[in-house]
Amino acid sequence: MGSLRGFLILIGFFLVGEMARLGLGLPFSGGVLGMLGLVLWLMVRGQVSEGLGSASRSIISVLVLLIMPGVVGIFFNAQAFSGYWLAIISALVVGTVLSVISTLLLMNWLSTADSENSGQ
User: Fold this and answer.
1) Is residue 59 within 8 Å of 6, Cβ to Cβ?
2) Cβ atoms 1, 50 nearer than 8 A
3) Which of 11, 9, 17 is nearest to 42 (CA)?
């Protein structure tokens, strides 16, 4: 029952993000806005419920399946991107490098903060 509640929380934040996107005419996806709302909510709350953690772990285990439709769409519409391959490859490489670096720095900062807090 906890996982169901966690899924409902995730879907709720997605829907709120989607409503904000449509209502305010923002150029971001509803999922991104919902994720930002969820992060802010978790920061205020200070903890992740067991149900939300369980639902999140379930989704992370099938993350590749969630990304697959976009990859397939690009594969079947390759002609539309024919003049933009250099830009696409550059964006993928730069985006991947920046993602890895930011994840490394964030993990380093969080592990340092955690070790300082556990030592007190």
Assistant:
1) no
2) no
3) 9
pLDDT of residue 104: 92
For 71-119, the DSSP string reads HHHHHHTGGGGTT-HHHHHHHHHHHHHHHHHHHHHHHHHHHHHHHHHHT
* pTM greater than 0.85: no
Alpha-carbon dihedral of residues 49, 11, 32, 78, nearest 10 degrees?
A: 130
Residue type, 118: S
- Of the pLDDT bands very low, low, confident and very high (cuts 50, 70, 90), residue 1 is low
Q: Which two tokens stand for residue 8?
A: 């409902």
Q: What distance in Å separates the CA atoms of residue 31 and residue 66, rounded to the nearest whole number?
A: 13
Which of 62, 16, 23 minimizes the C-alpha distance to 40? Answer: 16
